[in-house]
Structures are given as structure tokens and as C-alpha cells.
Amino acid sequence: MKKRITVLSTALLASTLLLSACGNNSDNNAGSANAGTSPSAAPAGDAAQLITASDLSKLPDTAKSRTDTIIVGLTDPSGAFTPYFQQSGYDGNVSSLLYTPLVTVDDKGLPIPGIAEKWDVSADNLTYTFHLRKDLKFSDGSPLTADDVAFTWTILNDKSYDGDSQVNTLHIKGSDAYKAGTATSIEGIKVIDPQTVSVTLEQPNASALTMLGSDVLSKAYYGKDYKQGQLDYMKKLSGSPLGNGPYKLEKFIPGQEVRMVANENYFAGKPKTEHFIYKTSEGDTWQYLETGEVDYASFSATKENIDKLKGLGFVNILPYTPSNYGYLQLNLKHPALQDKLVRQALTYGLDRQSIYVDASQGAGEVANIPSSKISWAYTEEGINPYKFDQEKAKELLDQAGWKVGAGGIREKDGKQLTIHYLGSKKPETDIFIAVAKEDYEALGIKFEPEVFADFNALVSKVEGGDYDMVSFSTPLLTDPADGLIQFVDGEIEGYNDPKFKELYDKGLATNDIEARKAVYKELFQYLNDELPIIYTSYKKSVYAYNGRIQNLSVSPFNGLAPSLPNWTLSDISQ
What fold does the segment set 326-539 form as a domain? Predict the structure, then answer.
């Protein structure tokens, strides 16, 4: 199981910068060649809502003394920084600065050029032809050509590939023969010339453009030891990535920081700030920002937080609603959780309003479907809100055969109803545990929480299957299919629903937006009833950053990555 997710409400989360590393897909019919601004020039954020720093003289000396370095907090990456071979979304935050994809999206989720200056899509929506920009280079100065694109698509269709990319689900013509080892190349992938490459699918897929338009790996570097059916060596290279993005990796010190330096070979020009550091050590976000140890931090958009940030004087404050959703992943291999009635009871019986809205002073909303609130496919029509109702929860548990037994704990077939919960060490987890323990024990459910200070340790526990429930959130989502990938790629173990798969495939079979909306409405209604996971919340955040930083903007779909190459540090010494 591969984790593209990030733990819900993580304190030192650097805005979830990832796009391509997490398989985000466009929702649009790009049936003709596209041209537009480079991703670094894409407008982002809402300037009208920006609260500017009131007194830069209050800037701590630590931050004031930095002239060529910007520091941002990030939770515990594992060090696997090669796209398609990563362990978590936090690794993707790093790789999003080391790689620039063929295609990215603007603030409305529309596809715009990355390192592909344009593309063509055939009338039957089966053949995609990408035209690369001229003179592209990897960070070591070696050329980036159509051969590298073809190599990337090829290894993602290798039978030994076990990462989280969905390129191998696109049914590229000849990919099955390649996976079976009966062909030495993929028929549908054609290198036309050094700057042009095409791929032909066997069936239309509305997500194909940005799925294919993701990051490109160097064939010379990553492919020198490649043998068909043997990709284990790639994982050894993930800690020493060779990319083409605005920055290149300088040094990774586990538990402390990820150091990056500006890439002089970046296609859009060398970034304005020479050094960028992700501070990964555990600590208090407020303390890091107040003392100047980090230049940027994300906070829940509570009035208390906003007032406190204004009081600092030296930070700009930018409200932001990310395009993701939080959820409680359930272990569907456990018999009790295989029963829809139990899953519905767990949802009715949990006061999500108190946990995700009231406790955050309104800086959140309860979620009931696997979709971003700002998605064009979002709907509330026919959606059960599962308002807190313990009597309804008890009724469903009774109906499912779980009767109150000794000590007030429900039992069935001689086994007690127990929920082993995993969470990350942070205040939000403390709130969740306090409410969930009270709510679930009132239903006759034994609630056993386990809290992890280390995110990677939590993921390992999940992968080992020793849990019932765990808090996660998705990465940024562009296409509505993005929020559903976890149900089809094996990440939600034990989930295999033919009706869901039929609707999922139907939603990707056309590029017509209105037709897709109708499918996703039906699909969301179905998943709202089935509850393979418990949907929790949409977050409202504010980003606070050093008032010296110029040209920072935030995209709902790309986070900070597009604007970061243009960040500069103004001179405030007078």
C-alpha cells in the first residue's frame, strides 16, 4: 500500500505543494493544442484577502539576517524524493520543487503548459501528442528529451512497478504485452523527434492529459540499470534524485532538514532565491515562526490564530481553502468494519461538528463525500449529512447484531466491538481522541487510541494492518477522480466494490463535463451511503509568512510550488 496522503491537520505542513507526485488529474477536455503562461507565472491566491505585515521592524534578527535562504516547515519526509517511488505526501512536497511536470493546472484546475509548451489530442480522445519546450535540461545539465518521457511512461507500465502512479491504468496500447513480457517496448508510445512524443490509449480517459503530463525521469540516470521486470534498483536512487525543477537537492538530514539549492538549468530561469530549506525537526510551529526559524507556516483559520498572527506584526497573512478533504480510513479487513451498518453507526455516533468545526472556531466544515468542496463535481444533493445522532447509531449497531454485554461493551459472536485508532501527535488529535472516546464508549464501543510522534512510524503501523481507524487527509485534488484513487489502487485494503468501479470507469470514459457531473453525483451518493471511509472535514487555513518575502502566492490546486521560483527577500535594513 502506497501513501500519497498526509496526516490530517499536521502542524508543520508546508501547504501540500505536491501536484504531479500525487497523481492529480485535470478535468478538462484539452482536445486542441494548448498554449499559455509557464507554471511559475500562473496567478494564485486572493490578493484582496491578504493582510500585510504591519511592522517589519519586529522581524526577529534570525530571519532578518538571512539574505539568500528561505526556510519552511515540513513534517518528517522519509527521504524518497523520486516521483512515483515515494513513501508519503511529505516526500512529494520535496519532489514538487525538484521536478516540473509536462502539464500543470491553473487556479481553476484548467491544464496549462509545464515543460510541454503545447499538446494535441486526437478527435477520438485516444492519442496525446506532447511538444516539449526547446533546450530543456535536467539539473545536471544533461538534455531532457522525448526519450526521457517515453522511458518514464514505460517503467510505469513495468510489471514490477508498485508505486502510486495511475499511468499504468490508462490502458496504453501494447502495455499489457509489455507487462506480460511478450513485448520489449510499448506499441502505443512513439518518439517522433527529440521534442515530440505521443501515446495512444485503447480507451478514452478524462484524466489522461495530466496523468500522462506528470514528472519526467532521466533515462540516462534512472534507466542505466533498467531491465524489464526489475525496478527494485529505482528505490535505491530515490534519495539522490535528478530532476528538472526549480531546485535541486543539496542535502537531506533525517529529522532535521532538507536543503535545496537553485537550479541554474531550470527552464524558466534560475530561481531568485539561492537556497530553500525544509525544516523537518519536530517542534512548536508558533515558536519557529515567532523566533524567525521558519519564514512560513500554516495555521487553522481561527479568529484566535489570526489575531495572534496580526500581533506579531512582521508576517503577511493569506487565507486559503485547500482542494482536499480529511477522512478516517477504516481497516476493511476486520470483520466488524465490513458491515455497512457498523460504518454508518460509527459516523452517526461521532460528533464531527464538535471535532472539526466547533473546536477549530469555525475554521472547518464537515465533509460527507470524497470530494473537494471547491471541485466542479461537488454536490450536496441526495447526500446524507450524518448529523450526530447516538440513538440512530445504537439502533444500527443493534440491527447489525452487536448487543451490549459485560461492562457495557457490545459483543457479537463472543468478540467485543473495539476500535483501535491511530493518530499523529498534535492538538487536533487530542481533541479527536477526547470526543471519540466519549462518543464511542457511550455506544458500547471500546475505543483504544495510539498516538505517534513520527509520521513514518504511523504509516508503517497502517501498512502492517494493526489498526481499525486512522486519521488522514488527501493531497490537493484537481479532478474529481483524484479523490477516488485510493478506492481503486489498493490503498484502502479490503475494498473491492464492482458498482463503485463501474461508476468510476464511467466517470473517466468521457471528457464532457456535464456528463461527468451526473456520474459523480451518483457516485458520491453511493459512497455517502456505503462509507468505505468516514469523511471528516474541509479545512480553512491561513498562511503566515515573513513580510520580506515578495511574489508569494498560493494556488488552490498547486499550493506554493508555482510561485516559489519567483520568491525574493526584500532588503529591510535602513
Answer: Dipeptide-binding Protein; domain 3 (3.10.105)
